[in-house]
Amino acid sequence: QAIVELAPAVCVPHMFCLPGMTTYRAIFDALHIPLVGNDAGTMALSTNKAQSRAVVAAAGVRVPEAELLRKGDRPQMSPPFVLKPCNEDNSRGITLVRKEED
Q1: Are 38 and 46 in contact (CB under 8 A)?
Q2: Using one digit for the tens of pLDDT, what is the confidence trace for 45-99?
Q3: Separation CA 43–CA 52 (nearest Å)
Q4: What are 35's strand-pairing partners?
Q5: Is 13 exposed, middle or buried, given 0-12, 13-18 or 19+ CB atoms closer than 10 A?
Q6: SS3 assignment for 30-59
């Protein structure tokens, strides 16, 4: 109620954690307060690289070769390749695999 009473013209979100990218954006959407940037649904999709890749590929955009690995899986691709966590952002957890031993 307090946010509605302030009658903001727009929300500029600066929270880049998962709740900030999804939940808080959804709250402002539910309050009919315009948001700068993408809506909660788009941001939720963007937090999962495998889902994002599938949507983009289904739209006809060429995407690079990729594998979805689970804990304990070993990649089948031949190096070099970039290994990225499926649901991290801001370049966290990225590894450049140059050879099999990496």
Answers
A1: yes
A2: 888 889 999 999 999 999 998 999 998 998 899 999 998 888 877 778 899 999 9
A3: 10
A4: 11
A5: middle
A6: HCCCCECCCCHHHHHHHCCHHHHHHHHHHC
> Are the C-beta atoms of 52 and 46 separated by less than 8 Å?
yes
Residues 73 and 34 sit within 8 Å (Cβ to Cβ): no
Burial of 43 (0-12, 13-18, 19+ CB in 10 A): buried
24 residue type, one letter? Y
Residues in the chain: 102
Q: Is 89 exposed, middle or buried (0-12, 13-18, 19+ CB in 10 A)?
A: middle
Q: Which two tokens stand for residue 27?
A: 């709250």
pLDDT in tens, 3-34: 888 888 998 888 878 888 889 899 999 999 99
